[in-house]
Amino acid sequence: MASTQTKVAVITGSAQGIGRAIALRLAADGFSIALNDLESHRSKLEAVAEEIKKTTGRDTVISIGDVSKETDVQALVDAAVNSLGGVDVMVANAGICPAIPFIDSKLIVRLLAVLVLIALKCSDCGRI
Length: 128
Ligand SMILES: NC(=O)c1ccc[n+]([C@@H]2O[C@H](COP(=O)([O-])OP(=O)(O)OC[C@H]3O[C@@H](n4cnc5c(N)ncnc54)[C@H](O)[C@@H]3O)[C@@H](O)[C@H]2O)c1
Prior knowledge:
Helix 1 (17-28) runs parallel beside helix 2. Helix 1 links the parallel strand 1 and strand 2 (32-37). It is built from four helices and four strands. The protein has one domain (8-123): NAD(P)-binding Rossmann-like Domain (Rossmann fold), CATH 3.40.50. The longest helix has 19 residues, at 105-123. With 128 residues, it is an alpha/beta fold. 48% of the residues lie in helices and 14% in strands. It has helices at residues 17-28, 42-56, 70-84, 105-123, and strands at residues 8-11, 32-37, 60-64, 89-91. A four-stranded parallel beta sheet has the order 3-2-1-4, with helices on both faces. The chain binds nicotinamide-adenine-dinucleotide. Nicotinamide-adenine-dinucleotide (NAD) is lined by residues 12-13, 15-19, 36-38, 41, 66-68, 93-97, 114.
């Protein structure tokens, strides 16, 4: 369990790209970090946790899950609370940006569902 003085940041989609960069930066700024990404990105997420530990010594916890699903968001928040002591900042970074035909309504519904649901489901958990 982290010190109660240590702030905790949750970053969704943090195995790569912008989410990974935010996680490394917030760890360098002194936050404990709850990392999340899809199962397919588990090894990349573990590498980010290792890098945070090595470069900053900060505590991390990994919660694999799809943050467009409420149960997976709850599991992520529970992991942050139980392992790191709370949630001070929630970075709803996870998202998809596929190049899709504009008239493909099924894909557009899936895209909007992921982006809107992620923002909504994470919004109860802290400052986005
Ligand atoms: N890179 C850009 O130019 C740009 C521009 C505008 C918006 N964005 C948005 O910024 C965010 C990060 O962009 P990026 O370039 O680092 O993207 P990226 O694809 O490199 O990384 C996104 C990460 O989110 C994860 N992810 C996707 N859906 C998820 C889900 N449902 N649950 C958990 N994890 C999930 C992916 O596995 C991936 O690791 C995305 O939301 C993207 O749409 C990026």
